[in-house]
């Protein structure tokens, strides 16, 4: 084989292998990656909202649940913009962040882009943010078990701990750390014992648990292995009304499971496919957040897309037997 | 030598694929925007920029194929070089922009919020991809056909009469595929 023939063989081989690799990676990885992620920068909302315009009484509260909003891209900005528009129409004083508020870098580096910029109208209006930490909310967390870093990051949001409880009007909120360590691995029993005690001590009308990883989900990641086995008996024993989660980048509301309704609201900035299952009441792969209004023993939820259209509307009654 | 009908058709097909791999990342972004319920900030800009760059480069790639087919000793060398160029273009046009967007999120997000158009970043990466593909194609062709440099006729249409390139080098005149002019 002469020199030129060897060159032809080499370049033709590289071309053939490259063409196959290009076809496989572009169709299987590259284009889906561009579609799945939120990499295009976006403009932050510039709304000016009336501060403290919401009403919160012992019988009434309004709040929003938002998960997986940490890209800082145009999709995250679009969702944040609609949250500001919704506040203007129906003011609320609380945003339950369901985890993963920072992708593509550390929260310390990107706090301004992923949180302060998109949420500026709501921050300026005095809205409170409470976080259930996700698996992307610390660079070394959870792999190294470096919980100190996460604690530092949580301090940026004024979150009191990795798991904690708050009360707003007729609702007691319970925020869990579903990472490892946290709900799994060393120290898991501490949190479970705390949850059992905290739910047992709650005397409010509503008990709502916020946890990043969903115990039940029909989305891309599905049920978090082992989580339902740990949490469902406690939820059932203490008549938890609603569990709010993220992690799967979609929206899903389940039918009541042992009396508890589970909502996955992970469409804060990205979307992944979801295939409805036997537990699904409503499901969609879309950007969204959920606006809740609680009046006494009635809770109304509306899942809202960034263009303002309604994805789901549901109503719950506080569980009997309290 | 003037390419026959089949090489001409293949050259057109190649140009279409060339344009498609440049345009498709913008199509993916636009389709996602529509699917997930956002108004599509930048979508049209990115698509228009990609269509312009893809169309221009499709013409350039098609012309390069035709020119190289005329000058080459063996047509297969032209196709090997072109496929190699297309592979580089396909990888770069998707993964270069993805890597830049993913790797420097803070920088371009800050620029966008200060009014710098995202479409410039997007177009710049597409042009870099095109340049890398063209360099690859030319280098591979010259490596395979060291004695048959290409006479480019993008601006010279006198060869369309079928009489072949206006200038023929002594080396080309000795080529078994190319009778002396």
Briefly say what this structure is.
The complex is a heterodimer of chains A (322) and B (181). Chain A has 322 residues and is of the alpha/beta class. Chain A is built from six helices and 13 strands.
What do we call the CATH topology of the largest domain in chain A? Answer: Purple Acid Phosphatase, chain A, domain 2
Distance between the termini of chain A: 87 Å
Indicate how many domains the architecture of chain A comprises.
2
Order of helix and strand elements from N to C terminus of chain A: HEHEHEHEEHEHEEEEEEE
Going by CATH, what is the homologous superfamily of the largest domain in chain A?
Answer: Metallo-dependent phosphatases
Can you tell me about this structure?
The complex is a heterodimer of chains A (322) and B (181). The longest helix of chain A has 34 residues. In chain A, 32% of the residues lie in helices and 22% in strands. In chain A, the strands form 2 sheets. Chain A has a 7-stranded mixed β-sheet, covered by helices on one side. Chain B has one domain. Chain B has 6 helices and no strands. The C terminus of chain B is likely disordered. The chains are: A alpha/beta (322), B mainly alpha (181). At the A-B interface, α1, α2 and α3 of A face α1, α3, α4 and α5 of B.
Describe the SSE topology.
The complex is a heterodimer of chains A (322) and B (181).
Chain A: H1 3-36, E1 60-66, H2 74-89, E2 94-97, H3 107-124, E3 128-131, H4 147-157, E4 164-168, E5 171-175, H5 188-201, E6 206-210, H6 227-237, E7 242-245, E8 251-254, E9 261-265, E10 280-284, E11 289-295, E12 298-304, E13 310-317
Chain B: H1 5-36, H2 43-71, H3 75-103, H4 105-113, H5 118-144, H6 170-173
Helix pairs in contact in B: 1-2, 1-3, 2-3, 2-5, 3-5
